[in-house]
Amino acid sequence: MRLLSLATDRPRRGGPRHLPSGSSAPPLLLLLLGLCLGVSGAAKGSRRPNVVLLLADDQDEVLGGMTPLKKTKALIGEMGMTFSSAYVPSALCCPSRASILTGKYPHNHHVVNNTLEGNCSSKSWQKIQEPNTFPAILRSMCGYQTFFAGKYLNEYGAPDAGGLGHVPLGWSYWYALEKNSKYYNYTLSINGKARKHGENYSVDYLTDVLANVSLDFLDYKSNSEPFFMMISTPAPHSPWTAAPQYQNAFQNVFAPRNKNFNIHGTNKHWLIRQAKTPMTNSSIQFLDNAFRKRWQTLLSVDDLVEKLVKRLEFNGELSNTYIFYTSDNGYHTGQFSLPIDKRQLYEFDIKVPLLVRGPGIKPNQTSKMLVANIDLGPTILDIAGYSLNKTQMDGMSFLPILKGTSNLTWRSDILVEYQGEGRNVTDPTCPSLSPGVSQCFPDCVCEDAYNNTYACVRTTSELWDLQYCEFDDQEVFVEVYNLTADPHQINNIAKSIDPELLGKMNYRLMMLQSCSGPTCRTPGVFDPGYRFDPRLMFSSHGSIRTRRFSKHLL
Ligand SMILES: [Ca+2]
């Protein structure tokens, strides 16, 4: 089955290969290629590696999100490295995807939520950030063919932002979904031209369409340059529409009743405190159903991965191809009595799966190293032989971790930052709620609010597994968790922790919130090289917001 041919006059396999592309090859390419040679990922004289980035939507790590993906675990994880401490700085689609593409924290790419006003696929994003994404660098500086298929950014295709005719700079082949995840009845931009899809499983189911167009790319691309593919599935995002053959799968599966399921977060910020405990039976039924359907949709992703790996193998390219599998944010189903969503600071929302295979990566490895999605761009550029120093990225290349480099100096903390969203008017289905909240379904329990705005330092070092968070709300609420003793983040230790340590974490958070590039990679509070330097807090952004609480806290 071939649903989306790459070319209307496609040549036979083995014949001359010419594909329509989103833009023509950049000038002076041969001169620029010198910028990407001779570094770790691209040894001189060898064929430069290909890279595939598979990105799921809303797939958690903590609640067993990888369980349905048996083939993916076997074909990627067991053939390479699985990370157990992979995080996203912002647990929401658009800010997280912007971090992947730019290698920057949200305060540097300025995409703060899923709206155009929040810079999601806005004109400003297109002008300032898109030319500097890592795929754009791969194409313009390294001569890679770049292929995108699937969900891009939630506002992609909006009329006010150029519609579906806008093809972001840096992509040779562009098959992007208009707006947010769907499985049927959607429109794709195919190199800038709209194509509508209906609801016939055999030709329209989006995960399968992405698989087929990806296989087509592998068969008909040019063989003279390396390639980068980003395949971004709708699964397991709502509306959780499974393929027909999977709609009865996992009938005996329910959302995990783990230690923070259906309990009340009494010592947490007000949005958690407003949740209703115990949840109603209808809420629990709703979230169990959502959990089951999410897993069902992932079975088609597992099929996609299998088809892709087999085609790479058949075409003789698997041994020279890195494959990354990850998600844009985690998810929760009933934790702290919040029925379903993301956008919270806790592990279930900020932790994601990350599996990588590729040349030089030994099979069956797991790594506890602290990595974040801002590291994907630097790592992939490193594979292509492009130096991170030439970019403005905040992340780090974890290629040395993948290759088992000994005595590696690595970071011990990352920044998590989120700007809450709310509605200006009262939700008519929940008249008792004031304006300023959002995502209040089911049972009028709200998952987000304007002042669900927070920033955290997430630390994992040899001795510490710690999270320190501050809210920009009326209480200036602080949450601190010792995850060694309390992996489910039930006990907020902000009032019992050593005040000196609390002060250091407060400074470290302020520093990270204003960091840029190299200053985002400085030693954390528990590293031997840590030092407090107030100048770093004003390095590139002029000022930081005042923290009222810090005076009486310290
Ligand atoms: Ca998402």
Automatic annotation (TrEMBL):
Modified residues (3-oxoalanine (Cys)): 93
Database matches in Pfam families: Sulfatase
Cofactor(s) of this protein: Ca(2+)
Catalysed transformations (reactions): Hydrolysis of the 6-sulfate groups of the N-acetyl-D-glucosamine 6-sulfate units of heparan sulfate and keratan sulfate
Subcellular location: Lysosome
Organism superkingdom: Eukaryota
Protein modification: The conversion to 3-oxoalanine (also known as C-formylglycine, FGly), of a serine or cysteine residue in prokaryotes and of a cysteine residue in eukaryotes, is critical for catalytic activity.
GO MF annotation: an example: N-acetylglucosamine-6-sulfatase activity
GO cellular component: lysosome
EC number: 3.1.6.14
Enzyme class name: hydrolase
Metal-binding recorded as keyword: yes
Residues covered by region (Disordered): 1-21
InterPro entries according to UniProt: Alkaline_phosphatase_core_sf, GlcNAc_6-SO4ase, Sulfatase_CS, Sulfatase_N
Keywords noted in UniProt: Calcium, Glycoprotein, Hydrolase, Lysosome, Metal-binding, Signal
Sulfatase N-terminal domain boundaries: 49-386
Matching SUPFAM superfamilies: Alkaline phosphatase-like
Family: Belongs to the sulfatase family.
Name of protein: N-acetylglucosamine-6-sulfatase
Native source species: Odocoileus virginianus (White-tailed deer)
